[in-house]
Amino acid sequence: MKKIIILGGNPETAVVVDVANSMGLHTIAIDMGINSPAKQKAKESYDIDVFEVEKVAQIAKDNNVDAVLVGVADILVKPYKDICDILNIPCYATTEAVEAFCSKDGFKKYCLDFDIQDIPGIYIEGVENIDKPHNLGYPVMIKPVDNGGGVGMKICRDEQDYKDSARTAFGFSKKGVILVERYMDCDDMAAYYTFKDGVAHISAISDRITTKIQGDASPVCIGAVYPSKHSALFIEQMHPKLCKLFKALKIENGILNIQFFVEDGIVYAYDPGFRLQGEAPHFHLLNIHGFDHRKMLLNFALTGVFGDNDFETINDYTFNGKKACTVWVLLKGGKIDSIKGLDTIKADDNIHFVLERFKEGDTVQEDFLGTERQVYARIYLVVDSITEVNQKIEKIKNTLKVTDTNGNNMILEWLKPFKEDDYR
């Protein structure tokens, strides 16, 4: 039986472990989270910081491990590559791609080098240098350069708030560097790429909808719809420049998600993720096209070959004319007493996957709010029209009930209906 180490422990990574188990692999999960979801699914696990790459590599050697793969965590892509390098086994991440996609300051540098419009801003090294950049007016967004999922991010609207939040953000950066950017209040989208044998294929383009009702915390996604209403603009304005970047980064195989803002006809790049995503477009790709990025990545880790030869013929970012939607269910803080209606939702023929991150009795802690840790579930559906997308969202809204120990509704906000004229 082939053995594989999977790095990370969150619920999204647990799904990768499930697939590896179904392929007959002996799975070993490694992360610091005691009894984390991925560890509960794996055949074997270790409570070790993945950044201790020599220790992880030694575990691989001691156990005659055949492969290593990163799960759904930006911050672990670099140690994933370092571990693979020590073991001399297949790794989809190149040195250049890690530099460009695994920290916000690195991404900003490469955007500048390749004439890719990003969000106006600068990065600041060291808490002693936190004076706000003179070329930016309020509001601004503060981000640790090497963290994700909204951790340490904050919208700041005045100087005192900025200085307090900047000090906090430094604590979430291993590099001790934060990014200060203009706050963008406009359309939000994402492009999801599949790389095979050095060619970048657009596999999905989506519009992202975020909640704006949690004060100045990072706006967390509450849903996505595919294909994006900005697809043509993205392909004309951004795709050619990105392809030049990808070639320079020597990317041969793998997957990449990049988020973008769209304002006044200009596309602004931000937040790349060189790994499987929390949004998980791969669920829609499996349902519509029949290829599974999770299996492709697992097979690559074992063999160095990424996907079948007919991949190009079935990959289509227009989703063959269908419409897909991911409904994110975010929860308010508190202890979950009751979850009702999920079985009815799962029984719907158009809903092809549901990822649950909490169960009854779990507590949504206050420090989860404003980050993706407050996500209870993601619900994946595919239909023929935006009209049907809106109908399904309404059905989910009327069916799913999550209440706390006082009987109060815990669901933060639902997706609003999409404008049908935007998606014809």
Structural class: alpha+beta
The portion of residues forming beta strands comes to 25-35%
The geometry reads as globular
Helix content bin: 25-40%
CATH architecture of the largest domain: 2-Layer Sandwich
- CATH T-level fold name of the largest domain: D-amino Acid Aminotransferase, Chain A, domain 1
Main sheet: strands, sense, barrel: 8 strands, antiparallel
The rounded Rg comes to: 21 Å
Give the low-confidence spans: none
- CATH level 4 superfamily of the largest domain: ATP-grasp fold, B domain
**Would you state the CATH class of the largest domain?**
Alpha Beta
Number of helices: 14
Write down the domain tally.
Answer: 3
Strand order across the largest sheet: 13-12-9-10-11-14-18-16
Query: Could you give the distance between the termini?
Result: 49 Å
Keyphrases for this structure?
424 residues; alpha+beta; Rossmann fold; Dna Ligase, domain 1; 3 domains; 4-stranded parallel β-sheet; 19 strands; 28% strand
